[in-house]
Amino acid sequence: MRAFALSVILVLSACNQQEAGPVDSEVSPTSGADDEQTLPGERSLADETETGPTRAARQLPGIPAPFVGVWDHVNGNCMPASDLRMEIEPQRITFYESVGTVREVSPLGEDAVGVRLDMEGEGETWDSTLRLTLSDDGEILTPSNAGDHPEDALARKRCDS
């Protein structure tokens, strides 16, 4: 009787199994080296799919080089004491009284990125999401917080390092 019950359970559990879809994992897009590891017809989860790239393929390893540098309000003096000064590094943004560690960077077009930051300053911590947009010549940066009206964002000029 036990063998019969066990058989029924196994059959029922096999009937309830469904094929799982691909998992959105932290993998890099394929390259020539990856092609040696995938079989013909297989595809890396980071490759383009019929509906677009996976989340992992859309992420950048850090803030891209054109955004990196020191920025201040267009009328600012670029001195460290300027309250609208920003120093952008690939993995960190330093503001006047706070520092943000980059958690995630997503491309938002040719001259814009979205940056999720773990912020800390004045004894507090919080999360922040910024959109960084560069002018065509790369000399003006317009940072805006998620939910802000773009027309309210304060443009920054590139400072000499």
3D structure, described in words:
This protein is an alpha+beta fold and 161 residues long. It contains three helices and eight strands; from the N terminus they run αααββββββββ. An eight-stranded antiparallel β-barrel has the order 1-2-3-4-5-6-7-8. The chain is globular. The termini are far apart.
List the helices and strands in order.
HHHEEEEEEEE
Rg from C-alpha positions?
Answer: 24 Å
Q: Strands of the biggest beta sheet: in what spatial order?
A: 1-2-3-4-5-6-7-8
Please give the alpha-carbon distance between the first and last residues: 81 Å
Overall average residue pLDDT: 76
Largest beta-sheet characterization: 8 strands, antiparallel, barrel
Q: What proportion of the residues is helical, as a percent range?
A: 10-25%
Which percent band covers the strand fraction? 25-35%
What ranges have pLDDT less than 50 throughout 5 or more consecutive residues? 1-56
From the helix content, strand content and strand pairing, which structural class follows? Answer: alpha+beta
> What is the count of DSSP helices, taking H or I runs of 4+ residues?
3
Shape: globular
Q: Count the E strands.
A: 8
Give a short overview.
By secondary structure, the protein is α+β, with helices and mostly antiparallel strands. The protein has helices at 2-16, 32-35, 55-58, and strands at 69-73, 86-89, 92-94, 99-107, 112-121, 124-134, 140-145, 156-158. The protein contains three helices and eight strands.
